[in-house]
Amino acid sequence: MKQKTIAVIGLGRFGMIIAKMLAAMNHEVLGVDINPDIVQKISPYLTHAIVADTTDEEAIKALALSQFDMVIVAIGGNIQANLMTSMLLKEMHISKVVAKAENSLQGKMLQKIGVDQAIYPEYDMALRLVQSLTRDHVMDYLQLSKNISLIEISMPSFLVGTCLKDSKLREQYNLNAVGVRRSTGLDVPPDPTAILSEEDKLLVIGNNSDLDELTK
Ligand code: ADP
Fold this sequence. Notes:
Blueprint: E1 5-9, H1 13-24, E2 28-33, H2 36-42, E3 48-51, H3 57-61, E4 70-73, H4 79-91, E5 97-100, H5 104-113, E6 117-119, H6 121-134, E7 138-143, E8 148-154, H7 169-173, E9 176-182, E10 185-187, E11 201-207, H8 208-215
Parallel strand pairs: 1-2, 1-4, 2-3, 4-5, 5-6
Antiparallel strand pairs: 7-8, 8-11, 9-10, 9-11
Helix pairs in contact: 4-5
The protein binds adenosine-5'-diphosphate (ADP).
Adenosine-5'-diphosphate binds next to α1 and β2.
């Protein structure tokens, strides 16, 4: 993977994890926070860590962020600081600005400001968790668009002992199997002729209504 230069502004719970993960993947990471204690704590893990109030135009310009591939605004609770920082970054013509939104109204405001991507980590995580906790047999759930999702489910009984080629998953359910998780590892793309067992998990992609049919 090509190494990127990424700045993470706001090193609260979410920003701190994102910054550390990116650094662990060998990207060049600059962490920025208004709180000197937080900056000092994270400094050993990142390429650089700087104390700055990014709502201050002079201070944010001094970070020379225009050379970065991406800037992630992870300021959470202080919505005003999140929006002001995002607006200043867009004015500085940063190539990619990704900003965390607490709710859909903030997400809309971020879009009006022109951020390249508004993210809703708490909402996305909660949705994923609720789906896997409430649906029997669903291990994991990832919403790809309003109507399309990818789910990991325990092997439906009608598939046990057959193979994907003979499964009629596409014809009957309008769904596509994209992987099979076996004790030996994840099979992607899955072998269409391999016999499926009760212990295997199926990764399947499709319309939410079709997925509901399969998992009900
Ligand atoms: P989380 O929910 O991810 O913990 P928080 O809102 O608690 O999010 O944390 C956001 C971080 O953003 C805090 O560490 C805070 O010090 C930092 N922060 C808040 N305002 C600014 C600002 N104007 N400039 C830079 N960092 C800021």
